[in-house]
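Lab channel / #folding
Pinned by the channel admin:
"Please post every new chain as: sequence first, then the structure tokens as a reply. Keep commentary short and put observations after the output so the thread stays searchable."

First post following the new format, from NK:
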Amino acid sequence: MWGTGNKAEDVPPDLVGPHEDVLIFRSAPSVPKEGWYPLENGKNNNYSRGAWGSEAKLMPLLAEVSKNKPLYLYKSSVGGSALSKKEKEADWNVASTGELLDKFLEGVEKVTASIEELGKTPRFRGLIWMQGETDCCHSQAEAEAYQRELEALIAKVRETTRTPGLPVYIGRIHRHYKQPYLQIVRANQARVAAADKNVFLFDTDDSALHADKIHFNPAGQIRNGELLFDLVTGKAVQKPAVIKPGQVFTIREFSGPGTPVGTLALTEPGSPTPTFVVEGEAFEIGGITGAIRVRDLTGVESSEDLTVSVSAVTGVAPTATGAITVKFQGGDGKIAGLFAEMDPSLPANSTLEKGGYQELRDATDPNRKYTAPKADRRPIQDTFPGTEKSCLRFDGARVMTGPVSSEFLEPGVDEDFTIAAAVHIPEHAATNSGWGLIINKGVTPTLGFGYNYAKNKFFFVYANPFNGALQTVVSNLAIEPGSSHVVRMRKVAETCRLYIDGVLAGENQGPARPAILAPGDGAAIGMGGAFPPAPSFTGSLGKFYLVKGIPTTREEARMDRDLAEWGAIKIPQ
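Reply from TO:
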């Protein structure tokens, strides 16, 4: 709305102005005398010199069809501002006193009086609302409240303008804005429009952005102005999407959060592009893609088919709502995936020379071996503390190289993955952080867990999607050195979670996760650390699981119990 990044020299020649039939309200200190001035794009669109938004195109177009009646524009914009109530910064929330909405409405009263002083009777013809990016960033609760808060704001503006049916035009925030709750806010914007015959949604997904992937560039602002013009004048043809009837999806019973269910199919796509919505708490849906995943099946009876209401909201009434059926399949009791065990009693052909380390094997094909260690990176064979089980002990220098990650993870595909291990942290004097078990994409890690010796806390790492730098989330649970634990890291879609002894101890959601391995990536998995001289682990690594895909909640519990029993580790039941 502000026009961030756009300069006066970016204004097309035919839009420069001054536009004598479009008047914009200017107040001190931007002008010597407060009042109405002809719109000059790139000069007086905003309080930021040179910036201009979609009004640069919209207002001249409207002037051509206004039948010589002057148009008055009152613009108020604050970059990075939220609709949700904030404690430390001004927001647009109706419950916030003396903040952005109150100041805006004071301005509405002022401009109304100034037009009346000219001997004219103002008619409010519309409110344009382009906001919501900040409400995608911080919490799911704020994103879920967006519909309620925006409807309250619209009611307040209509009350102030004494125009009960004031048309409202909402710009749907761009699909390329990478924040964790983007789809929730987009869905709520569409719901506001679908619930009110005088609220309209225009789709900005094809409007060009600056390199920051947040703000609209000149071409994008001009396109938004054209979209608004078509809505205001009734030229836009908007229609609801049609959901393909009778869709049936099948998942395993007790499927864990994030398990893919399927993708909602349409017989008619609608206009503008629909935002997908699923009702209830059991499932979540990609607002852009229509991909359905498990959210929380607690309390869902898996012995019967489940009927779920889904919508493809386009911002026009009626909303296209349909039903899908989810069928549950019983599990086979096995934990699918790759795993390793340190057991010297295993047959010699499955054990490394001088090691007692069973090669990493495929759970469905025991004859398939992956591990190819180098002699100078062998860990120390030891006994897991408190047991008679053989384990790998690392002294902060030795690193065990496991299988090549690209042999069982498909590069370029956003795969879900679980790592779980029995780990012992000895008494130590170390002050560094060491990676315990990590998947490498090349010379750098991409996914795994480790231990911070200075804080006595486990952590997980994940390469972020922007520059490959590692994001680190440290456990909120401190542990006492000299103890053993079951550590489980779970990457599902855009969410990574860290569990210590079965308890959620750290979480990182979004922005959108890339594939674990990009095309061409693939390097040995590091056990006890990454490649030297990267920080390495000090402690014992016992039995562990590397699971491709998403285990069910029962399988995860079974995995934790198995590791706890193996390592004589006490975990809550």
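NK: The CA atoms of residues 117 and 388 lie 92 Å apart.
TO: also worth noting, Residues 346-358 have pLDDT under 50 and may be disordered.
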